[in-house]
Amino acid sequence: MVPTVVAAVTEWNGVTQDMMAGVLTEIKSLLPLVAPAVIGFIGFRKAWGFIKSAIKGA
Known about the structure:
This protein has one helix and two strands.
């Protein structure tokens, strides 16, 4: 017996394509807020490490 292929799956355990599109939209709307914060945090950590090593080496 050969299994048949379903054309398109539109619902999986109660999660629909529209719900996933809403989640993706919200993630994209938060990106302009989160990206600068992450970049600033990484820069702060690098600067703090540089200052600590400069003080330790002095």
